[in-house]
Amino acid sequence: MNSLRIFFVGGLTSYRALFNWLTPWILVPTFLLTPLFQIFLFVYIGRTAGVSDDRFFLIGNAVVNAAVPCLFAMGNTIGGERNFGTLPLLIASPARRVPLFLGRALPVILNGFLVAVFALLVGALVLRVDIPPATWGGIAVAIAVCSVSCTGLGLLGAAIALRVRETAVLSNIALGILIVFAGVNVPVDAMPGWMQAVSGWLPMTHGIEAIHALASGRSVGSVGGALLTEVGLGACYALLGLAVLRWLEWESRVRATLDTA
Amino acid sequence: MVCVAQPVIQVDELARTFRSRKGLFRRTGKEVEAVKGVSFAVERGELFGLLGPNGAGKTTTIKMLITLLMPTGGQARVLGHDVVDDARDVRRKVGYVFGGDRGLYERLSGLDNLRYFAELYGVPPRESKQRIAELLELVGLDGREKERVEGYSRGMRQRLHIARGLLHRPEVLFLDEPSIGIDPVGARELRATVKNLVDTGTTVLLTTHYMFEADELCDRIAVIAQGRIVALDTPAGLKQQVATGSVLEVDVFGLPDGVVEKVRAEPDVLAVAVEVQGQAEVLTVHARPGTDVTP
């Protein structure tokens, strides 16, 4: 029962506690305007270069923006504690770590989902990109799956924050890798072999591929494999994150890095 | 069958060495022995003080006892649980409060801070509401609990820290320099709160570098310096150990002739000196330990 409360109530409270961007002055530009600017930039570059249609760039750039909260906010679940000086209290508490940190992922997933759906919806309206209404349900599911898997990678980043102070740097690098490798602006098929190999192991790649298929009229069932792969990858990153978290927590007690890292 | 009460905190030859490395290519290592084999025991209901200057090893010792740091030598048990092997059991039963501004969620209200830590410490929701109300009253923050912590004064934050540390009714409370940085009135209130806690049966281990605070609060004091305990006794016992004599200073105007010689001739007086300070003179009398030299 307590683990459930830590998962739901604790997760939401820590989200409110740790993220300064919850004020409108920070939230609106970060989550609503920046993704639209990114979409417009790449759509117009795509039009100029004649590489692909508007829908391709709209989907990739809208969905990848879910990674902003999923990577940065999740990484901040440890980094923020360190900034507030609450990390030693968290570590010295008897709370079970799995519900504690997975609970922190829940609001982050919802945040990522809403950012991507907003960007896709407004981007489609402004750029007059036709995405059939019947496909939106399936697309929403795929976006949710992308948010879950990306948050798995974010949890790994959070774990590393037990050892490294500047998690935003790591999150920026991860976001850059996703933009380049996950089929956001360059179709995975068009990449060299080694890049395709990397993209297959990244969150978002399979989800974005599924959303492209759904938007072109294919059924949810036909992209089930891609979505399952996406969920599986997210689960792997999350498990790896929890394992690293456990190890680094133990190591922080041995090496006294909680206050100094 | 005779039951012998076990100490609540048992520390045997506890040691902690910090190793740090710096430099990118030619990495050089440095070792600092922060705690060099300290031993002490704290009985149930006792207020035990660790007194020492900054850098003496007080916080490091506390961090080992609350399982935030692994010892590099010796061992410690809190409420019968080993601080290395049974860390979770120790964490459930102890509270930890440290001094200073940090350690609270600034953007949350005092009430939400307490609610969150109540969750972390597994306080049942029904009990939590009543417990938080009790603690807010105890630390004098009732009525201010819905304000964001970022607007709290340093004293209010410290009192919120105390409330946080008591949420789960810990059997042992570790207070690491709790009065640091707060004004004299706030510090006095804090000391009153700590006394109340001990009266209710909580065992307290307090670190401080204020001698008067240790003297006023503690049943026993371990004086720690450079990672070693150099003295351990009751406040009265410690004062007895370091007593080298009594010193009496008297401000006088126009000291009559012969007085100094007369005082010096008293059997328990060791030395007498007179210093001119402006229009006044200060007569300083050094007497043997335990001697009452006042008229």
UniProtKB/TrEMBL annotation, chain A:
Decide whether keyword rRNA-binding is in the record. Answer: no
Tell me the ranges covered by the ABC transmembrane type-2 domain, including all copies: 20-248
Q: What is its main location?
A: membrane
* PROSITE patterns, per the entry: ABC_TM2
| TM stretches of this protein | 21-44, 56-74, 105-127, 139-162, 169-188, 226-248
Its membrane topology is listed as: Multi-pass membrane protein
What keywords does the record list, in alphabetical order?
Answer: Antibiotic resistance, Cell membrane, Membrane, Transmembrane, Transmembrane helix, Transport
Localization per Swiss-Prot or TrEMBL: Cell membrane; Membrane
The UniProt family comment states: Belongs to the ABC-2 integral membrane protein family.
What is this protein's record name? Transport permease protein
TrEMBL record, chain B:
**UniProt cross-references to InterPro entries, sorted A to Z:** AAA+_ATPase, ABC_transporter-like_ATP-bd, ABC_transporter_ATP-binding, P-loop_NTPase
Q: How does it sit in the membrane?
A: Peripheral membrane protein
Task: Spell out the molecular function terms from Gene Ontology.
Answer: ATP binding
Among SMART domains, the record links this protein to:
AAA (SM00382)
Instruction: Tell me where in or outside the cell this protein is found.
Output: Cell membrane
Superkingdom of origin: Bacteria
- Pfam families in UniProt: ABC_tran (PF00005)
The regions listed as transmembrane in this protein's record are: none
Key words of the record: Antibiotic resistance, ATP-binding, Nucleotide-binding, Transport
Query: Residue limits of the ABC transporter domain?
Result: 9-251
- Record protein name field: Daunorubicin resistance protein DrrA family ABC transporter ATP-binding protein
Q: Which organism is it from?
A: Asanoa siamensis
